[in-house]
Amino acid sequence: MNKNNIININTIEKTQRYIVVPRRIRGKVQETVKPLKKVKGNCYFTSNMPHALINFIYRGVKKLGLTSSNLIFSRGTVRINNRIVHNAVSSTVLDWDLGISFIIPLKLRYNTFVTIEVDKNDYNVRLMELVILIALMAHAYPSLSRKKHIENAHKVLALGWKSILT
Question: What 3-state class would DSSP assign to 17?
Fold first, then answer.
């Protein structure tokens, strides 16, 4: 095995890259420049991402096999039907094969927990991890329904990856 392909699970590198991301501002699509400060594998992050969340996202990307394109994670405003939401992640496939942009709501805090039920047992999980995992699963398995993505995300957060990968 080539040592250049091995990334320490706790290593988060710094970078000085910028990317143009389309954003919907007042009903019109405008392009904004986002600075990317942290990188881990094929995942790029803006400066306001918690380190624990970066590790969680990277593990999810590896487990789901989303390593063929760049994934850009940033914080911002997420809208569904022109209404601001705080419990969903927006994802956009970028032009020119730049990758996929994921936008996590600014108002969503990393320490916000929700209770989910899996196999008739209650589990407390982080809401931010749940919505990110659902968005990643939607890109990894586009043929599955949204309901199946939510069920699989609940199983992963409560029981671990082996609950869906076996």
Answer: strand
